[in-house]
Write a structure and sequence with these properties.
The protein is α+β, with helices and mostly antiparallel strands. The protein contains 26 helices and 43 strands. The strands form ten sheets. Strands 14, 15, 17, 19, 20, 21, 23, 25 and 27 form a nine-stranded mixed beta sheet that branches. Helix 3 runs parallel beside helix 7, helix 16 packs antiparallel against helix 23 and helix 24 runs parallel beside helix 26. The protein is flat. It starts with 14 loop residues before the first helix and ends with a helix.
Length: 1009
């Protein structure tokens, strides 16, 4: 059977006709509603009881043989476990009915949702599409039937010819030229491997529009049921994957490389041969080109086809994504992903390509850079612009031209040249507050020459000069590689033959440092009508071109490290996050947590920014431990200086312990009566010590803790930790000396109400009073009541008005002491007050502090009265090996100095208010955003499925965090239900970064997760 080219006009069948067909041929009374289609007619048939089926009216071009093949394919799918709808027989028992000369079939209606309009697709969903494409080709591998041997426009073997035929319908001339140009390049690439591509039965249209999705436990749509076998035929096996991949591109068109996750899972189940790997992206491009041309043609011949009209924009988005990066580069991405080594060779395979041969040196040892700069005199410094470079501390990497500054510093120290090596991810190129990764990986070696006289430039390799410009020259070595020298004034003409070591240009004399870039690039990335290298951002003269981390797998293959040629060390890097994860998993216990499904490797931080090993930066919205921000120079200097002078333990007499303790006490409210400090190593230890103090001071054992609280991991602090999120059995295995009281959460607790409603706090406090009375009646008088001053574990939920004052009064009346756990919420984080308990106008008997005290250095502490502290003597002496030692005290003082000098509490108030207002504005536009908790820079964004019932959007919250990480924001979940985005960044958070966080959350809530 041959299908006419140029598109098809759909059969003239109305919804009324469809209802009549259902009645006459299937014996059911229905209401018909049309579904979209390019060339057939499809209708949903709904019966009175709500039962739905689907009616398909085939275009006359499709014959019975094609339909028979489709029915066999459905059987093959079912046998292989691929979900497909069943074709339902008519009243006469036949699967195919005839109406007005047209073939009609009725099939099951598959409940679920189409994935075509669901926006962003998560990596797991993309991988599932690849697995489904593999299941399809595996299921159909043995299928044979005459109905498969049909000519039709969607057979990718004729995609180029069809695109050329249909392209005149594209009214936009610029778009038409792009489509034809891309199709021609793809066809040339395909011609080299076409004869080697396996042919079998394939679905041919396994796309996001022909797969019904079901919601998973993660609330995402996952591909489930395959529909519409209208394009079933024999075809290239790899075309099945190409069609699927192309359909995924429009979901995030500016990030086409994400779609390659489907290649991984396809290959795992249906191994891809080398010719198929080389053919994949050319087929993706051809499919995209054909979609655009066909869409325009369909409108030209069937102007009333709303389905076709609605898809025009999506089809162009697919094309734009497919051609965003050069075809050569995308093919290398596929090959790299599949682990294939080598460059394209004849016969559809790959061959190893040797690096350029290094000419025999004329001197030993080889002097660095002399192969390029033979008359260079002096030392050559090889610089480290990488993520862990010492020279880039204290945010120096954010300077506008940090590369040049590094080089200038080396030259000022006496070096004749400074080298920024090939393949080292440059921290100097990182960008902050950016949704996309910066171009950090250099394709060449960049040398900076000291100011001075003119300097001769030579070619390290022989070849033919093929290009001479005002900024340099390009040499074809004749063995598959090109040499690029950028920044030199050429002294040879295009077409010249040059020998290794021959002078080809010079660096002009200058009073300023002079950059010179040297690159070895594979021939197929330099040649052709649209060389791939030209798509890489062209920097200033003499500077190395760089690509973003996601493009590195291809460009690592398309370029070569020139270090051996230039006589310098080879330092090229790759992303080793997967290796590091495997290493950690070998030595970690299963109970040890880590963040993210596919974690990045973080090796640098500065203020409220984290940077991974590829130079990709993230806004850090969770690290409340580093209150001053990452990499604080004052803290680093304090550690360095004190560790060189003295570090011992607090039983010795030294100035720092009293000085730090006095500084802490001075921060407490005047007249608090809190005058004694005991220093330890962590918040867990601080809480454990506070409990011990209370029990010693009162002579009692019972401690009252609130439900849903987290206080630490030591035996004692874990005993009062009641969060089922951290321990699902927390309420069942508390020791008998712990009593759990109701948590005063006015949003989700027993009593709910507005922020200023005093009855809410009174009710919770009254219940606590009843608990205390019952405990006393049972002979379990209370020793202490421990409570976070703000419900941090709940996501920053503020206590109801009046609750804490009332609760403290009742506890003290019962003879107990009040412990304020300020480990998370204290130390200026609230903005309007230094301590969280000040929000409630109370003064506790014991205060525990830790996390921000050392800005990541392990410091914890307890502040109380001397009378309470002295009670500890009844249990022996108190001592902590590291608590309060000279080093930790000096760090603590440095933190307090920086908080004061940098006015970080004020920043928490101002930026926190801005951030909270941004979240509240999101709540007005996105139903999933529920209450906004907290104050200052301890905030929580509660995500709910229903604002009335507050059903927690737990799975959605986790998925949203994963998507935010892709967009450059690190934020995680908290609360008993793990549905609150915890926002507790370093107190340095800027207004710009706060706005960036809100903008990216808005993007995720709009596009999907």
């Amino acid at each position: 059977m041959t299908q006419p080219t140029g598109g098809l006009v759909r059969p003239d069948v109305t919804e009324t006709d469809a209802a009549a067909i259902a009645s006459d041929h299937y014996g059911v009374d229905v209401v018909a509603r049309e579904l979209g289609s390019n060339q057939d007619r499809n209708f949903v048939l709904e019966e009175a009881d709500g039962t739905c089926t689907v009616l398909r009216v085939d275009h006359p071009v499709f014959d019975d043989a094609a339909r028979e093949a489709q029915h066999l394919a459905l059987d093959a799918y079912r046998a292989a476990g691929v979900s497909v709808p069943a074709v339902l027989p008519g009243v006469d028992g036949a699967l195919v009915q005839r109406w007005g000369g047209l073939a009609v079939r009725r099939s099951e209606f598959i409940a679920g949702e189409s994935l075509v309009n669901c926006g962003y697709l998560a990596p797991v969903v993309i991988r599932e599409f690849g697995a489904l494409a593999a299941a399809s080709v595996n299921a159909l591998a043995e299928l044979s039937h005459p109905g498969l041997e049909r000519d039709h426009m969607w057979d990718m073997r004729v995609a180029y010819a069809q695109t050329v035929e249909l392209a005149p319908a594209i009214a936009d001339e610029a778009l038409r030229d792009r489509v034809l140009g891309a199709a021609e390049e793809a066809e040339r690439a395909l011609a080299a491997v076409a004869a080697e591509l396996p042919v079998q039965a394939i679905h041919g249209d396994l796309t996001d529009d022909n797969v019904i999705g079901l919601r998973g436990d993660d609330t995402r749509l996952h591909p489930h049921t395959v529909l519409d076998l209208g394009d079933l035929s024999s075809g290239w096996r790899i075309a099945e994957l190409a069609v699927t991949v192309s359909s995924l591109l429009h979901h995030e068109a500016d990030r086409p490389l994400r779609a390659l996750a489907a290649v991984d899972t396809f290959h795992a189940a249906a191994p891809v041969a080398t010719p198929e790997a080389r053919a994949l992206w050319p087929l993706v491009v051809l499919r995209a080109a054909l979609l655009v041309a066909s869409g325009w043609r369909q409108l030209a011949i069937d102007g009333d086809n709303d389905y076709a009209r609605e898809r025009i924009a999506g089809e162009q988005a697919i094309f734009d994504a497919a051609t965003r990066y050069p075809l050569t580069e995308m093919t290398e991405q596929v090959l790299a992903r599949l682990g294939f080594i080598g460059a394209a060779s004849s016969g559809g395979g790959l061959q190893l390509q040797a690096a350029p041969a290094i000419p025999a040196p004329t001197e030993f040892p080889v002097s660095p850079l002399r192969a390029l700069l033979p008359r260079l005199q002096g030392e050559v410094a090889v610089l480290d612009p990488g993520v862990e470079a010492d020279a880039l501390d204290a945010g120096r990497w954010l300077a506008a031209d940090a590369d040049a500054q590094l080089a200038a510093a080396a030259l000022a120290d006496g070096a004749a040249a400074a080298v920024l090596p090939y393949g080292v991810y440059r921290l100097t190129r990182a960008k902050i507050d950016a949704a996309d990764a910066a171009e950090t990986w250099p394709l060449g070696t960049e040398a900076w020459l000291a100011p001075g006289a003119e300097l001769a430039v030579a070619t390290p390799l022989a070849g033919t000069v093929v290009s001479v410009t005002g900024r340099g020259l390009l040499i074809d070595t004749g063995d598959g590689w090109f040499v690029s020298i950028d920044g030199a004034t050429p002294s040879v003409a295009s077409g010249s033959e040059v020998l290794a070591g021959e002078l080809v240009g010079s660096l002009p004399d200058s009073a300023e440092p002079r950059p010179l870039a040297f690159m070895l690039c594979r021939a197929d990335a330099v040649s052709g009508l649209a060389p791939a290298i030209l798509t890489v951002t062209l920097p200033a003269t003499g500077r190395a071109q760089c690509v973003s981390p996601e493009r590195v797998p291809a460009w690592r293959r398309l370029t070569q490290d020139p270090a051996p040629l230039l006589g310098i060390p080879s330092l090229a890097q790759r992303d080793e996050a997967d290796d590091e994860l495997a290493r950690r998993e070998r030595i970690f216990a299963s109970a040890q947590e880590r963040y993210y499904e596919s974690p990045m490797q973080i090796e640098r931080g500065w203020r409220h920014h984290l940077v991974d090993t590829t130079g990709r930066s993230y806004v850090d919205m969770v690290n409340n431990v580093t209150g001053l921000g990452h990499g604080h120079p004052g803290v680093a200097d304090a550690i360095s200086r004190q560790s060189r002078i003295l570090n011992t333990n607090s039983r010795f007499l030294y100035r720092g312990l009293a000085e730090y303790s006095e500084r802490l006490l001075a921060l407490l409210p005047e007249g608090s009566g809190l005058d004694t400090v005991l220093l330890v190593n962590s918040g867990s230890e601080a809480v454990a010590l506070a409990l011990r103090l209370a029990q010693a001071a009162t002579g009692r054992k019972t401690v009252v803790a609130l439900r849903e609280a987290y206080h630490g991991w030591t035996m004692a602090s874990d005993a009062v930790t009641t969060s089922a999120y951290d321990n699902p059995f927390a309420l069942e295995n508390r020791p008998d000396w712990v009593h759990v009281a109701d948590v005063p959460n006015r949003f989700r607790g027993t009593y709910r109400g507005e922020a200023g409603d005093p009855k809410v706090g009174e009710s919770y406090a009254a219940d606590l009073g009843n608990d205390l009375a019952r405990l006393a009646a049972e002979g379990r008088e209370v020793a202490a009541f421990v409570c976070e001053s703000v419900l941090g574990n709940a996501g920053g939920v503020l206590l109801p008005d009046g609750y804490l004052a009332d609760a403290y009064a009742r506890v003290r009346t019962a003879g107990g002491l009040c412990i304020a756990d300020e480990v998370q919420v204290g130390f200026g984080r609230m903005g309007s007050s230094f301590w969280g308990f000040e929000q409630s106008g109370v003064v506790p008997d014991i205060v525990t502090i830790a996390k921000p005290m050392g800005n990541g250095f392990p410091i914890g502490g307890v502040i109380t009265s001397k009378a309470i502290a002295d009670a500890l003597a009844s249990q022996g002496q108190f001592f902590s090996s590291a608590g309060g030692n000279p080093l930790s005290c000096r760090v603590g003082i440095a933190v307090l100095d920086a908080m004061r000098d940098e006015r970080l509490q004020e920043n928490a108030a101002v930026v926190g208010a801005r951030l909270a207002e941004g979240f509240r504005e999101l709540a007005e536009r996105h139903e999933i955003v529920g209450p906004i908790h907290g104050e200052g820079l301890y905030l929580g964004v509660e995500l709910v499925r229903d604002r009335a019932s507050l059903e927690p959007a737990t799975a959605e919250a986790a998925a949203i965090c994963e998507r935010l990480r892709e967009l450059g924001v690190v934020v995680l979940t908290t609360s008993e239900r793990s549905n609150v985005l915890k926002v507790k960044p370093p107190l340095t958070l800027s207004a710009e970064s706060a706005d960036f966080m809100v903008a990216q959350l808005d993007r995720v809530l709009t596009e999907g997760w």
